[in-house]
Predict the structure.
Amino acid sequence: MSTHKIAIIRGDGIGPEVIEASLAVLDAAESAFGFSTERMEVEAGAKHYLRTSELWTPELELRLRGQDAILFGAMGDPAVPPGILERGFILEMRRTFQQAVNLRPVKLYPGVKTPISGLTPERCDMVIVRENTEGAYVGRGSTVHAGTPYAVAVQESVNTRVGVERVVDFSFRLAQSRRRKLTLCHKTNILVEAGRLWQETVNDLSTRYPDVELDYVHVDAMCFHLPLSPERFDVVVTDNLFGDIITDLGAVIQGGLGVASSANLNLDGSAPSMFEAIHGSAPDIAGRGWANPIGSILSTAMMLAHLGEGEAALAVEAAAVHVLSQLPAPSGAGMGRSTSELGLEIAALLGVSGSVPPVPGRSIMGELAGMRELGGLGLR
Ligand code: NAI
Ligand code: MG
């Protein structure tokens, strides 16, 4: 029986609530599919910071590096000024562990309400690959004459061939296991230096993947194509900042923050990958049991696929989607069940084979597991 070492970072607000529900599902997946996990709890986040002044530390890095994966809730509290946790912890983890790819499936599951009228699940099934360690998020820049009328702020965007190439190569390989179409999203007409590096990298690598059709869309145009003609897209690759923005739009299209999932993938096996719902700590609803845990549960499924438990990952996705399709509202008091009840309901479906229909269309779970088999996902 395989055993996977996972670190659990529950964090703040609804983070611990959605993680608790995810762990109930993980327990059930372990019994149903015959694997086990060794779980290491890690204290981190806003509350921890306020108590200890600790953010990302070398000791923590050492403890986490030995793990096979990290399951992450959310961090944030109104008492901690913006930027401290993001730059001091989350970005540090992504950079230190070279989690080069931020993977964001944008799939409208059957029965989920989307604000885009007339949109059907068949038309919305894509994956956005966001570069996760470079671009405008490297934290480089300076201000001179700060606080005066002559203040000058410079914020740099760093793009390396190596950094761009690894996410573009990953995107081509992912496209090969899907509809064989790759779209670069950038702003090459204005950000000409970075744009050239991205476009050249895509063009160069395309010779290795002649079976993948190429497309290009400017990021501003993406903001109307994405909601109005999502069927145009299969795999979209983009830089850190553009990816941050368009993945939130993707979350809206697929039914909201409660259902959107993500993976932060280390591609060379040198450090663990991290899996998290894309929402934050939602202090406005924390403690009420109103948080939808599906985004976190689908992120847990991606973690399972990444750990080589592809069958379990597909079953968790199918069970979560089945329960999701029956919710009267995607989040809040209107869900009709609490966060933990939803977790238990999904967990209960896992033990019974054939109890839920398979998810129609493509599944990122199978694709991730398949890429891992081919050695493309940092076997650890
Ligand atoms: P948020 O995602 O926490 O909440 C935005 C809105 O969506 C809120 O009204 C919230 O109630 C609702 N919402 C979010 N997730 C939900 C769920 N699972 N079920 C039902 N409703 C849900 O974003 P916000 O309010 O901008 O940030 C709150 C805190 O979270 C801040 O401190 C922020 O810095 C932090 N944050 C942390 C992230 C992380 O840990 N990766 C990501 C985004 C924000
Ligand atoms: Mg964001």
Observations:
- The pocket of magnesium ion (ligand 2) is lined by residues 244, 248 (CB under 6 Å).
- The chain has twelve helices and twelve strands.
